[in-house]
Amino acid sequence: MPEMSLQELLSSRVYHVQHVSRPSDTSEREEIAYSTHEGVVVTLLNGRKYLLHKGRNFSPSNDTVVVDAMYMSTRWRTLESCAVMQEVTVGDLMRVAGTQYNAEFDNDKHAAALMMNKATAKI
Description:
The longest helix has 13 residues, at about 110-120. The protein has four helices and five strands. Strand 2 and strand 3 (about 50-55) form a beta hairpin. It has helices at about 5-10, 25-30, 90-95, 110-120, and strands spanning about 15-25, 35-45, 50-55, 65-70, 75-85. The mean pLDDT is about 90. It is an alpha+beta fold.
């Protein structure tokens, strides 16, 4: 399957979401008091899957990042899986997750919950 541009990816419609979790890395545990790291795997209409997750300094411009799910380790586990019943794009979920990480008030768990709520909200 040909690669998509970032703009094409952000405007792609999501039809399925999975709330996922993995054990925190040692460096993450030193920064925060949580033992797991969370994110959301989205499935696009074309079948491609991407992991959206938030962390301190994940990117110079945005602490919420999107990566091809094929690069996920086997340590990730699904917590919840839902069909998306409204029109939601990858960009919509990235926006609701926010750009700045705060260990106490705006972390990976907050971002995952916000993305799941956005994707599964009843209109």
